[in-house]
Design brief:
With 849 residues, the chain is of the alpha+beta class. The chain contains 17 helices and 35 strands.
Length: 849
């Protein structure tokens, strides 16, 4: 369902610098996540207590305290002590009707951040208002009632009947609303936190809860106004971890309980909870503006921890908050605002893998139940690499240690039930190499990816060298699941073909030779060839390079529609699948489109507002395709709610019938950059980022998908509580960040970087970007582009906009390729010697200085 009128986006509004030069006294904080160590050495200088030997990639130190624990547990902190003993601290909120808000908080999350990806600082606001009914919902119903000539009689009747009850529900919710602000800062050696919970409304009841995060054994007790706990190590049972919570003031009531259920019952007053040692809670009633401060720690022996002075806690929190922008991804201007949002969103979704003892990025569905090994998680790794090298590396490493899903081919790593999981995770692992030089991740991923690759021919139903889409049945919600394209109309009419032989995967083949699937097939071949070169496997590299060329030739011969002048999927009988979606651009992403065809795709199709272009790009099916917005009534005369049908129902631009889907946008953007369409790529990134910021600024959501027409709010599937914090949504804003500075995963020296933009509006800056052992900041505007490396200006261009790629700065000099929209004066400072200057004209120039 769509909502009310959205004010024109504020993407062009330039904001002030957000802490690029801020300074504050350092909070004595441990990183919690160790930095990468050379292969074979101890990560972070301290071995992780876990599965045997130290690992050659970043892992998590012990003991540690990390705000955030698991799915949507966003007011909590995780403590891991001796032998992998685990403790959880949560802040719970009680509604006036006696409901406890303590986990699974997607509905109740109101504000996010600022926060740091390593847990050094975290801030959220949580409310009793779940936003199930919003002013926009009510405005939508009023729109129908006020303009009956534009709607059917049934729709007007439905809106008229529902408005009073929904208005009352909304009014009751607002009158009973209670909101809290929760903040954490990690302190000492990383094993402690200080925190506060502030009531933003009168008569707010909260409680501090201590238990174990996943039902492990522990024993908790009250010690005056404090709570103590101990738990055996899960990996080293002979070791015991100890925990202590020290609030600044005594609780109004407290207790220790036999179970979480008993604790909740007692805290809500429903019944008297059975006493015991499995959990403890301290209950407080706070007036508006009152802050409860506390400290908590974990250690190998019972820790001493005095109740903290509130002013000391507030000072530590303020210092830690200031350090978020000083030490992490940040920026200014529209794209800089997006940098802050992406940092906070990914930090929010940073979770702990209890099985492999690492951090990872939680995906969507309001949680996801742990690490998701499907293709979506590859976008999370790429996006997280801008925010935190340890997080991105741990996340992608976790993918290749994950167990095979039930009833699938017994491969570890990416899900074989989604054929582009392998290609996308190969691409993600390769980008960790181009960004950071992460050879260890390549070594870990490569064997799984090769085995995965060698199974793919079982989906070549006719043996011609191109793959047909697997058969996922005739059910709704999965016919295109091999590409994460669930119900894309491309897959509506495929026919089942019995499969003979194969790997043991029980699914049959179909008769649809799929442009998107074969593009990913080519991408996987190309990426494996690059990996093989780095790993010294020359024979493998030659094999994969040759196969990439074969797929390129076959796809161009058989899947280019000469009359329609675009790539289309095709049935085995030679007839064309005429549905046009953004997958027609995927051959650019895979590097298999010819240059001439790439220009046709971009100039004649992507930029055509009748097909894909517009203020909101890119719809999941072309605007002039019969499937576009075919999911429900369309009301072209309605001023605000063109797609609004009725409250609580899907809308015309549902997921695969027009909604803008972040993974598609990210794929199209990368294809544009790969083929050098720098002007279009910048405009595309600006539009994607604007849509992301609309949702972030208005609701502090980063939803799975967006409406394709200006004036619409987030569609119904995004508004539903399960879709408000979808991790891959960040791919929308990351496009602008990659416009400003990025690795180059496609051609040239893998250590060369790209920076600058021809099309992002205004002047934008981004800072604290780590690439290849250096920390970068970039500022790019209409007349000046500046690159700062490790605190020193190394590149400055004045006179026009530029886009630079293959930038290699050495002691002996510098080389790069530049695309300028006018005459530009360039000054570069190499690692040694004097600054060097040159001037380039509009267009493309290779420079050696």
């Amino acid at each position: 369902m769509t909502h009310g009128h959205v004010p024109r986006r504020q993407f062009l509004r330039t904001v002030g610098a957000t802490g690029l030069g801020a300074s504050a006294a350092a909070l004595a904080a441990g990183s919690g996540i160790a930095q990468a160590a050379p292969p074979g050495s101890v990560s972070g200088g301290r071995p992780a207590q876990g599965r045997g030997t130290a690992l050659p990639y970043p892992t998590v130190q012990r003991p540690f305290a990390m705000p955030g624990i698991k799915d949507q547990d966003w007011t909590g902190a995780l403590f891991v002590g001796e032998g992998e003993s685990r403790f959880a601290l949560r802040v719970g909120l009680l509604t006036e009707t006696g409901k406890v808000i303590r986990e699974k908080m997607t509905n109740n999350l109101w504000r996010i951040g600022p926060m740091a990806p390593d847990g050094a600082y975290k801030e959220v606001q949580v409310s009793t208002d779940e936003r199930k009914v919003t002013p926009t919902h009510l405005e939508a119903l009023r729109e129908v009632i006020a303009h009956p000539e534009q709607w059917s009689a049934a729709e007007v009747s439905d809106a008229t009947a529902k408005l009073p009850s929904l208005q009352k529900q909304y009014d009751d919710t607002q009158s009973q609303k209670h909101t809290i602000r929760v903040r954490y800062a990690r302190a000492d050696d990383g094993s402690s936190v200080v925190g506060s919970v502030t009531a933003l409304d009168d008569d707010t009841t909260v409680f501090l809860e201590v238990a174990t995060p996943w039902g492990e054994d522990a024993a908790f007790a009250l010690d005056g106004q404090n709570v103590t706990g101990s738990a055996p190590g899960l990996l080293q049972t002979s070791r015991t971890g100890h925990f202590r919570l020290a609030p600044a003031e005594p609780a109004d009531s407290s207790g220790c309980y036999a179970s979480i259920a008993d604790m909740i019952a007692d805290m809500t007053g429903a019944t008297t909870g059975a006493p015991g040692t499995a959990a403890a809670a301290l209950r407080y009633r706070l007036s508006k503006g009152r802050a409860l401060t506390f400290a908590a720690t974990v250690g190998g022996r019972p820790p001493r921890l005095d109740p903290p002075e509130p002013h000391e806690v507030e000072r530590a929190l303020a210092t830690a908050e200031a350090s978020v922008r000083r030490d992490n991804l940040t920026g200014s201007g529209p794209a800089g605002r997006a940098a802050d949002a992406v940092r906070d969103a990914l930090s929010l979704n940073t979770n702990y893998d209890k099985n492999h003892q690492r951090a990872f990025v939680m995906w969507g569905w309001g949680g996801g139940g742990g690490l998701f090994t499907g293709w979506d998680s590859a976008f999370d790794a790429i996006d997280a690499a801008l925010v935190s090298r340890p997080l991105a590396t741990q996340h992608e490493t976790d993918i290749f240690d994950a167990d095979a899903p039930p009833n699938q081919v017994p491969l570890k790593g990416p899900r074989y039930d989604q054929q582009n999981s392998g290609p996308m995770h190969a691409y993600a692992a390769w980008r960790l190499y181009t960004k950071f030089g992460e050879v260890a991740v390549l070594k870990k991923a490569y064997p799984t990816l090769v085995a995965y690759y060698d199974l793919l021919p079982e989906w070549d139903a006719d043996g011609d060298g191109l793959l047909e889409t697997p058969y996922f049945g005739d059910r709704v919600g999965g016919r295109g699941n091999h590409l994460g394209l669930d119900d894309s109309p491309v897959y509506a009419d495929y026919r089942r073909i019995p499969k003979v032989g194969g790997s043991g995967d029980r699914r049959d083949n179909t008769d649809l030779t799929d442009v998107a699937l074969n593009s990913y097939y080519a991408l996987l071949a190309e990426t494996l060839a690059k990996m093989a070169e780095v790993l010294g496997r020359t024979a493998d590299a030659a094999r994969f390079t040759a196969h990439h060329e074969t797929i390129r030739r076959l796809l161009n011969d058989r899947l280019w529609h000469p009359q329609r002048r675009l790539y289309l999927s095709r049935y085995l009988d030679g007839t064309w699948n005429e549905v046009v979606t953004p997958t027609v651009f995927y051959p650019l992403f895979a590097g298999i489109a010819t240059q001439d065809r790439a220009k046709i795709l971009v100039r004649e199709h992507l930029l055509d507002p009748e097909e894909f272009w517009g203020e909101y790009v890119v719809p999941s099916v072309a605007r002039n395709d019969p499937a576009y917005c075919s999911g429900g009534p369309v009301h072209p005369l309605s001023e605000h709610f063109k797609f609004f049908d009725r409250y609580g129902e899907d809308t015309a631009p549902e997921q695969w019938k027009g909604a803008v889907w972040p993974p598609m946008n990210a794929t199209v953007y990368d294809g544009l950059k790969r083929y050098g369409f720098d002007d279009v790529a910048g405009e595309f990134a600006a539009r994607s980022t604007a849509m992301y910021l609309d949702a972030w600024d208005r609701d502090n959501w980063f939803p799975e998908s967006f409406d394709p027409v200006p004036g619409q709010s987030i569609m119904d599937s995004a508004v539903d509580s399960a879709w408000r914090t979808y991790s891959w949504s960040n791919a929308m804003a990351v496009q602008s960040l990659h416009e400003l500075i990025s690795d180059n995963p496609w051609e040239g020296d893998p250590s060369g970087i790209m920076f600058g933009t021809l099309s992002l509006p205004g002047t934008n800056s981004i800072a604290n970007v780590r690439l290849r052992g250096h920390t970068y900041a970039v500022s790019a505007g209409p007349n000046r582009t500046t690159l700062v490396r490790d605190g020193s200006v190394v590149f400055r261009a004045t006179g026009a906009r530029i886009a630079v790629r293959n930038f290699l700065l050495r002691a002996s000099g510098v080389s790069f390729d530049v695309n300028a929209d006018g005459r530009v004066d360039i000054e570069v400072s190499p690692e040694r010697g004097r600054a060097r200057r040159t001037q380039v004209r509009a267009g493309r120039t290779h420079v050696e200085l």
